[in-house]
Amino acid sequence: MATQVKKTFQSPKGTFDILPDDQKYWEKVRKAVKHVALSYGFERIDIPMFEHADLYSTAIGQSTDIVEKEMYTFRSKGGDLLALRPEGTAGVMRSYVENGMLNLPQPVKLYYVGPMFRYEQPQAGRYRQHHQAGFEVLGDQDAVYDAQVIIAFLAVAQELGMKNLRVEINSIGCPKCRPAFRTQLVRFYKTRVAKLCKDCKRRLKDNPLRLLDCKEEKCEQLKAYAPNLIDHLCEECHNHFKLVFEYLDELEIPYALNPHLVRGLDYYTKTVFEVFVEDEHVEGGSEKTHQRSKLALGGGGRYDQLAKTLAGKDIPSVGAAIGMERLIGVMKRQNIKATPLYKPEVFLVQLGAFSKKKCLRLFEDLRVHGITVAESFGKDSIKAQLRSADRSAAKIALILGHKEAIDGMIIVREMDSGAQESISMEKLIKVLKEKLKK
Ligand code: AMP
Fold it and tell me: Measured from the CB, is residue 279 less than 6 Å from ligand 1?
């Protein structure tokens, strides 16, 4: 009889599991994001992980990589065309308008944390499901909020103890000044079409600003000679940008002007920025080399036109998003420690069926008193249980034998020294609290 070979399942390409060992880093990042967000007055919002697909194509732009190539789009059984969210801003703005947040005192400051989905070619630091933490300030055009989202972004990295960060900043103007720049840009590239990559040849027709975002080497080289956005800003954009600098200077935030920085989404106006980390990668096998490179941790910018495009409303806003996988990758490479989340203080050892039942009750009592307990209820031998106690790094083992269980006593053993004493059950919580300095 032919034996049937069972298929083994693997996670889909570009996705990964966050295993217990790594959770401490995620918790640390989530904690830092929450702490920073609340200290700057951002309140949490959770939006759906999928939306109507045209929300994204309208907001982000039809001829962007995200919409053209990377969106997970699907038809629901009811016939709606939906998409897994590739980013957070469009959904947050949709929610703001839908829930009448325009009637709240402005600006409305929101933050979110959660997974995003992009059908990209997986590589180190690039996944098909990744997580972002984002800050959004909706309903205010003041340049002070452009500075504040940058400052909040850096505060997260700082709270985590991260080093070697670099902020690059630019202004991409507004519908008043961008068309003239666009014309100049097209003129510049039209005479150099032969030197462009295939995608950029198409971008030249569909979305010329995106030419500045191309990572192909030959296009990067050309970019150095391309016209500057900064030279074409209207007075309003120029003054707004100047104020952003002044606010950052006031707090002595270091930044670099990158006149060719544009971002991969169409909804930006005025300020755009990215935060990079000078990262060290180890490459090669036996002959390892240390390579320094610039890794984008995240970015953002002002999106004054987004609500107009989506809902015909004037809601000037600014925001930023941090890539959480990259943040955690850098934490590990920069040797930033995270405290394990599960740290049992006491290990319960039981001998025999009667004491096992008593231990079940004892476990609950200790837990209610805030003492973290580990157990190996499934094991009977004292040797095996003490071995587990050793491995658990608990400071104290509690040993309940049959006789102790009948007499209302329990053995308290200090794992480091091996010293042990028998005490009455009634005194146990008090003794443990003293020993654990609680
Ligand atoms: P973006 O708005 O596309 O610049 O994304 C913001 C940040 O999210 C980036 O700087 C990355 O840190 C992170 N990010 C974007 N796409 C991915 C991805 N596919 N995998 C992992 N992280 C990503």
Answer: no
Q: Can you give the pLDDT at residue 389?
A: 94
Both structure tokens of 176: 């008043």
Token pair of 409 as six digits: 């006593």
The owner of tokens 């004037």 is 314
The percentage of the chain sitting over the pLDDT mark of 90, rounded to a whole number, equals: 86
Coil, strand or helix at 401: coil
User: Does ligand 1 lie within 6 Å of residue 298's CB atom?
Assistant: yes
The two tokens of residue 348 are 């319960």
Measure the CA–CA gap between 20 and 10, rounded to whole angstroms.
18
**Ligand 1 pocket check: which of 60, 72, 89, 116 to mutate, most ligand atoms within 8 Å of Cβ?**
116
Task: Please give the order of strands across the beta sheet that includes 289-302.
Answer: 43-44, 108-117, 129-138, 317-323, 289-302, 269-283, 165-171, 256-257
* 40-81: pLDDT as tens digits: 999 999 999 999 999 999 999 988 889 989 999 999 999 999
Q: Is the CB of 296 under 6 A from ligand 1?
A: yes
Residues 120/121/127/130 CA torsion (nearest 10 deg): -10
DSSP for 155-170, please give it: HHHHHTT---EEEEEE
Counting every residue written for the chain, the total comes to: 438
C-beta of residue 300 within 8 angstroms of C-beta of residue 318: yes
Any ligand 1 atom below 6 A from CB of 157:
no
- Alpha-carbon distance of 67 to 305, in angstroms, equals 18
What does pTM read for this prediction?
0.92
Structural contact between residues 139 and 108, judged by C-beta atoms closer than 8 angstroms: yes
* Virtual torsion, Cα 231, 237, 238, 241, nearest 10 deg: -110
- Ligand 1 centroid vs 323 CA: distance in angstroms? 5
Q: Which of 33, 71, 132 has the most ligand 1 atoms within 8 A of CB, as the residue to mutate?
A: 132
- 419 vs 412: CA distance, rounded Å: 8
Q: How far is the CA of 297 from the centre of ligand 1 (A)?
A: 7
Question: Which candidate, 319, 321, 240, places its Cα nearest to that of 275?
Answer: 321
- Splitting the chain (438 residues) into consecutive groups of 10 residues, what average pLDDT does each group show? 77 97 98 98 98 96 89 97 98 98 98 97 94 98 98 98 96 93 93 92 89 89 90 96 98 95 90 91 54 88 96 97 97 96 96 95 97 95 93 95 96 95 97 93
Question: What is d(CA 173, CA 256) in angstroms, rounded to the nearest whole number?
Answer: 18
